[in-house]
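Running this now, will post back.
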Amino acid sequence: MQQGTLMRKVKSKSWKKQRYFKLQDDCMTIWYQSKRTGKTESAFSISDVETVREGHQSEVLQSLAEEFPPERCFTIVFYGRRGNLDLIAGSAEEAQCWVQGLRQLIEPRSFPLTFALISRTWIRDWFQRADKNKDGRMNFKEVQRLLKMMNVDMNEDHALRLFQDADKSESGTLEGEEFVLFYKALTQREEVLSLFQEFSEDGKKLTLLELVDFLREEQLEDEGTEELAMELIDKYEPSETARARHVLSADGFLMYLCSPEGSIFNPQHRVLWQDMSQPLCHYFISSSHNTYLIEDQIRGQSSIEGYIRALKRGCRCLEVDCWDGPNGEPMVYHGHTFTSKIPFREVVSTLGKYAFKVRYPSPGAGGYGWSLMGGGSWWCWPPAVQDPKGQHAPWRHWAPQGACLSPTPQELKRKILLKGKKIGRLEDTLDGPGDEAPDVSDDDNGAEAEEERRRAKVGGTQHGSALQKDKETLAQALSDCVIYCKNVPFQGFQEARSHSRPSEISSLSEAKARKLIRDEGNEFVRHNAWQLTRTYPSGMRTDSSNYSPQEMWNVGCQIVALNFQTAGMEMDLCDGLFSQNGCCGYVLKPPFMRDEETLFNPSDPSSHKGPSPITLMIQVISGQQLPKVANSKDGAIIDPLVRVEIHGVPADQAHQETKYIENNGFNPRWDETLQFQLHVPELALVRFVVEDYDKTSRNDFVGQFTLAFANIKPGYRHIHLLSKDGTSIPPSSLFVHIRITE
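Update: finished.
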């Protein structure tokens, strides 16, 4: 890896600035600074980098293709919504050095980000930041400055005691291992040590049987407990001698609790664990709205990055709004607005590359790729590209065998379903040409949609002319691509039950869906047990804000389209629901939502025929190394509190919060128990939010973590916090104790 390399940082065709890029000694941080001023401009951690793309693989670099060869260009892609970093190296050799070096660092197999590594990196990083004169030593004044930087407001006498205890050389400064000793004393987890000693007879180690007792009594592990205990010792005990004796030290115990096995999220549910052979309408499906937009809905930028980011988050239903473009080339953008445009060919090329890349490879998920839906508006398809299959489309043309109208995700692996208008019925596509006027989407496309709805209702002598007009404006090849997701207008549940088919889908605005939930909740659940429903944000949400997806999931709506570019509670819920099942983008609905004769109504908890309400008790014990609030003043220390939110049916909606801890973001201790009653736990999501308390204004966001109730592991667990963008912020976490009773 080159150090201090001069490269061009590119933001647009005209904005190209030279910057020096350097990998720090910790091999975890990259700084870059201005060539002109020498001032450090920014820095990022290797753990923030998702991937590195070579060549002209961004719109900005594509626009410079004639000026700079692809061998010198590469793009650093970050997790979450952070913008990409486009770079142009001075030579192909320099570019390759950075590309290969970065890939080595971010590749988990060759450079695992274990808890121990993160902690060691964290220590080194703080030391370097606090060592102002860069002499490799730290005096007490520098230590006091460090504590402020680390979100700690500590009594000066206590800090001096810790400093003197660690200063083994009695030099008045800390260096090397002395600073590590100071850090260990600073981060001593009394609450974990106390728990360890409860089960340890001598207070120094857990024997195999003592660890088994802890796993059974507190962690409620009831199968293969002895084998699990042996695995945990082998995996997390740092002492080779202790491993040989099959015992776990206090350090090993802490490492276990901070590991995936000690997480609140059931690790067995991280992989593909659900039945994938049910009809498509029996699943919640991760879905985006106006996927091409990465900003607002009126003047925002359209970009293929919107598709890439959504797909990498596990999204399985994308939106492509296609309109006439120059020279007979279709363009994708938000019609009748001032958003920028991207060529349709670039969109489908991007889908071909990223449609079936899995977010977290897992048994049953890796190497496959669950089916992708593409929907949107297709107005006045240009004659020059009337055969999308031949010229642009990456989708695999799929037709069901016989009269199958309810395929499963298992059957649809590596297939792309096109959702849109269709000439005739599915049966006509299978059996021959049809003579039925096409139904159309009840979507938010203004006057065009209204005219389409009017045409769909005509009968008698007008029927043939409507069909003829549609055949003139809709390419037959495009119509033939629409197999399972034919758009039809929603005209009531009774009408749908009498005349619609499982191969059809209706789209509803959030306002229309809410009215149906309020007036006909049970009928809505029944309808979604056999047919797909898509909901989308109100046209008034020009800022790309989102509605809560929970109320739509409560009635079984499968395709709840959200603006993925907008961070917030709504996207936290979406990420939380779909973080299970191998992140494949499909989550199986509860059994009572898959029954066409179900009596369930989310507004009436008594209609749920499951077990009696359960009690969820959460003891919020402590927090560790919480991040500072963005753009906070130097020396400012947060006053953290924890809020736990339940999102589910109306009767289960609730939130409670702890008191705030003054001036301690490093190791706050709450020891407060919050209690919730859940009537329909199968639909509940639990969101943990850490905020910085402010008595004069709105609290500031610090971190969050959201998961489905069904994925919670009881016992003593760590919750590894995520940023507003949904990216991890190691080593920030909460330590909790979970109990679930009926």
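The first strand starts at residue 5 and ends at 10. More later if anyone needs it.
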